[in-house]
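seq:
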Amino acid sequence: MPFYRISEMETQYVDMGKGQTQSVAGELMKAGMITYPADGGPPPHYHPNEEQFLLVMEGEANVILGDETRLVGPGDLVHIRRNERHGLRITKGPFAFFTVKSPSGDGDLYQDYNKAEDAEAAREKLESTL
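struct:
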């Protein structure tokens, strides 16, 4: 079915960052909503096989992307290349974003998640920008 209503999609809860997702997979990409509470969010990580866009719908967060850190909020669009370390620290929650990843893989938005080797140092950098 090519039409979806996010509010009617099954919600999945993930331990990683206390998130909840609603997602759908197509032939070449997957898309969905991810929402984290004010005290949530995944540790810095990368996706070796997926390219990602995220569009912030609600809340604000400091986002680390490679070596750059920036505050993002509603209406901001972020492009994350394959293998690019990224993570976030929520400054105003809940933090909700619409995301599209390619390829679709098995449809799981967390399928290609790999914790960054320097996750703790990157998290400290995010914390220090608050």
